[in-house]
Amino acid sequence: TATGLFFAYAVLNGINLSTYFIIYDLGAAGLSFALKAAAHGHVTIVTKGAIEECNTNYAQGGICSVTYAPDTFEKHIRDTLICGAGKCDEKAVELVVRRAPELIADLIAWGTRFDKTPDGRFELNREGGHSEHRILHHEDLTGAEIERALVQSVREHPNITVLERHFAIDLLTQHHLGEFVTRHTRGLASFGAYVLNLDTNEIETMLAKFTVVATGGIARFVLPMCRHAKAMTENMEFIQFHPTTLYNPGEKPNFLITEAMRGFGAILRLPDGKEFMDKYHPMKSLAPRDVVARAIYREMTKRGSDFVYLDVTHKDPEAVKSHFPNTYDKCRSIGIDITKDWIPVTPAAHYCCGGVKVDTNGETSVKRLYALGETSCTGLHGANRLASNSLIEAVVYADQAARHTAPLLDKVDFQ
Q1: Rounded to an integer, what distance in angstroms lies between the CA atom of residue 323 and that of residue 352?
Q2: DSSP track, 48-91
Q3: pLDDT recorded at residue 410
Q4: Which entry of 134, 269, 289, 385 is annotated as an active-site residue?
Q5: Interatomic CA distance for residues 186 and 38, integer angstroms
Q6: What is d(CA 41, CA 18) in angstroms, rounded to the nearest whole number?
Q7: Phi-psi domain of 216 (left: phi exceeds 0; alpha: psi -120 through 50; beta: other)
Q8: Residue 176's pLDDT band (cuts 50, 70, 90)
Q9: Do the Cβ atoms of 378 and 393 come closer than 8 Å?
Q10: 126 within 8 A of 263, measured Cβ to Cβ
Q11: Residue 387 has pLDDT above 50, yes or no
Q12: Could you give the 3-state DSSP secondary structure of residue 251?
């Protein structure tokens, strides 16, 4: 078998087969999978930079979950399907929405701190496309807080090895044994990866029973690497634009102004002060992202301007600073006091709704190769992601993958 041939190859070449799982890069998906999988076998995390460097760190708004009435699973499912413009996989939507509360509990158990009201209830935000308040958050730095808790838990886990400054350059399949393979090859499977050690400039062969790719969206090298391994991709044409990024010429990438600010009551305005979203959607400034982004673009095009304004000056200044300290500090650094000044905003490319096609266990079309987080296409988002659905998708599918791989460990005869 191919597994046996790879085992023989490893023995002859002195390769260490001690890892059961290899995770390429991290974030909420990779780290939470590592913590779940480490209960069943040794996990090796490969990351090209420091463990803290990932897209999760930049997620400001929050993470979705039905928490209190009057919200319901049915409402969250409906909001997701509407935003997905008819392109969602309903099984994926049902799975993520219904499993969200228990995965939120896991994040809290790992040390994530979500903001609460004085009476001890979670303080829930509302964002574009949501019919209810269901966004758990930590100020406007939710991703960084989740990442902090997960990184700390991973560093303390005795069954997880983190290889920083390592870069996966190719996924191992039967192709590396000299077999001609296509995406239709029966039994096509993953056996690990070739990994470049950036400190020694040497390529290391790392075999693993299961390989997980969790590198974020449209990674410059990872998607071609997965395609080279003959994994199927899907919905790559669906690139979501964030409607409100800070207009600050010369700064790239753009700083995101969280949608939670519009949920807090901020209003989109033209340079003359007029509101305009009522022309485009009954939810006005809280319409789904694609609607808001297109509306802003149309208004900018009509006037030949580079931005519109987001106005939160009518809200209590101390409440604004308390809810959005990161945004407040960033804007002050370029001379904008958001409690007194309108914020110039413009849409920007933000998220890939497509990726490496996976099933409800996070497994790709290549056996034992899993894709999680924005790298994957689960079908949850359809053509347009509902705000703050990405982080919960990441941890739900990480749990699905960990549950799926655990009983299969003894069936893969690498050791």
Answers
A1: 28
A2: SS-TT-SGGGG--S-EE---STT--HHHHHHHHHHHTTT---HH
A3: 86
A4: 289
A5: 30
A6: 9
A7: left
A8: confident
A9: yes
A10: yes
A11: yes
A12: coil
- The question of whether 289 is a catalytic residue gets the answer yes
Crossing angle (nearest 10°) for helices 142-156 and 90-109: 60
Measured CA to CA, the distance from residue 23 to residue 15 in angstroms comes to 18
> Nearest 5°: phi and psi at 413?
-90, 55
Q: DSSP 3-state assignment of 245?
A: strand
Report d(CA 99, CA 73) in Å as an integer.
Answer: 10
The predicted model gives 327-336 an average pLDDT of 97
Residue 40 has pLDDT above 60, yes or no: yes
Q: Is residue 219 over pLDDT 60? A: no
Q: Tell me which H or E stretch contains 22.
A: strand 21-24
pLDDT at 414: 54
First CA to last CA across the chain, in angstroms? Answer: 14
Q: How far apart (Å, rounded) are the C-alpha atoms in residues 269 and 308?
A: 6
Mean pLDDT, rounded, for 61-73: 95
For the question of whether the overall pTM of this predicted structure is more than 0.85, the answer is: yes
Can you tell me the mean pLDDT for 79-106? 97
Amino acid at 19: T
Q: 3-class SS at 304?
A: coil
- % of the chain with per-residue pLDDT over 70: 92
pLDDT category at 389 given cuts 50, 70, 90 is very high
Tokens of 125: 């935000």
CA 81 to mean position of chain CA atoms:
19
Structure tokens at 3: 């597994």
Mean pLDDT along residues 135-146: 92
Q: Where are the alpha helices (DSSP H) in 242-376?
A: 260-263, 289-303, 317-323, 325-333
Partners of residue 162 on adjacent β-strands: 45
